[in-house]
């Protein structure tokens, strides 16, 4: 017997920290058991966010619930309470955690749920236009930087990314531009040195993912770019 205090401070035993993966109810796609109280703690590195997409929800409607919290415990804001049948709901964490609880009572059951998680860049830009700059800009960027930027515009739009300034240590400090929402998307171009000043790039879809990396010596101005929804 652990006693009340130990129970109260016990963290969720099911932690998910991979770049991507799945969570599902016990025995999915077979019927889940009665009286479950399951937790799923999905944690990304600091600076990244968690995206969670429910491919299937099938529970006893109004009685057996999946609760999605924006944080690392049930104390985090409740984003949604799913019950009954649904598919396709997507949730994104504000910081680097989502916490999911699945509870069933006695009586009716179902297949439960399956959901897929992935890590998104936490440095997110939305809206029709904006400015993206290297860390510390207009000062020099730091050594050993590894920064991500996720730009997302309206669903049916594309993005024009135009660089006003680009100045990095050639070959050692660079910016990767991906045609999508993560590093899993196709790489459009890797920019380094000063050649990229006044370069413009276009996305095919409504998102662009940038990754800026610097090595351990020689800091330059970095970059400043304007993105526009087109
Ligand atoms: Ca039930
Ligand atoms: Ca450098």
Verbal overview:
This protein has 230 residues and is mainly beta. The chain folds into two domains: 119 residues, Sandwich (Jelly Rolls), CATH 2.60.120.290; 106 residues, Jelly Rolls (Sandwich). Helix content is 3%, strand content 48%. It has one helix and 19 strands. A five-stranded mixed β-sheet has the order 1-3-9-5-6, with no helix packed on it. Strands 2, 4, 7, 8 and 10 form a five-stranded antiparallel β-sheet that branches. The protein starts with a helix and ends with a strand.
Mind sketching the topology for me?
Elements: H1 3-9, E1 15-16, E2 20-24, E3 37-43, E4 48-58, E5 65-70, E6 77-82, E7 85-86, E8 90-92, E9 97-103, E10 112-121, E11 124-125, E12 129-133, E13 146-152, E14 159-167, E15 174-178, E16 187-192, E17 200-202, E18 207-213, E19 222-229
The structure holds calcium ion (2 copies).
One calcium ion binds at residues 169, 172-173, 214-215, 217-218.
Keyword list:
230 residues; mainly beta; Jelly Rolls; 5-stranded antiparallel β-sheet; 48% strand
CATH class of the largest domain: Mainly Beta
Using the alpha-carbon principal axes, give the shape. Answer: elongated
Strand residues, percent: over 45%
Give the radius of gyration: 22 Å
SSE arrangement, N to C: HEEEEEEEEEEEEEEEEEEE
Largest sheet: 5 strands, mixed
Helix % is under 10%
Keywords: Disulfide bond, Repeat
Pfam family, one: CUB
Protein name: Tolloid-like protein
Organism: Artemia franciscana (Brine shrimp)
């Amino acid at each position: 017997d652990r006693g009340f205090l130990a129970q109260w401070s016990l963290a969720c035993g099911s932690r998910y920290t991979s770049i991507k993966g799945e969570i599902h109810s016990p025995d999915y796609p077979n019927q889940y058991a009665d009286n479950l109280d399951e937790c799923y703690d999905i944690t990304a590195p600091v600076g990244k966010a968690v995206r969670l997409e429910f491919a299937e929800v099938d529970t006893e409607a109004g009685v057996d619930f999946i609760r999605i919290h924006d944080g690392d415990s049930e104390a985090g804001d409740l984003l949604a309470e799913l019950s009954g049948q649904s598919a396709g709901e997507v949730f994104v964490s504000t910081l680097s955690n989502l916490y999911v609880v699945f509870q069933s009572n006695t009586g009716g059951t179902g297949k439960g749920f399956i959901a897929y998680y992935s890590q998104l860049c936490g440095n997110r830009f939305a809206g029709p236009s904006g400015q993206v700059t290297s860390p510390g800009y207009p000062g020099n960027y730091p050594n050993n930087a590894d920064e991500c930027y996720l730009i997302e515009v309206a669903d049916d739009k594309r993005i024009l990314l135009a660089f006003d300034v680009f100045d990095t240590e050639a070959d050692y400090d660079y910016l990767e531009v991906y045609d999508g929402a993560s590093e899993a998307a196709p790489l459009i171009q890797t920019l380094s040195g000063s050649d990229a000043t006044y370069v413009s790039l276009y996305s095919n879809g409504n998102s662009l993912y940038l990754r800026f990396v610097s090595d351990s010596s020689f800091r330059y101005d970095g970059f400043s770019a304007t993105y526009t929804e087109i």
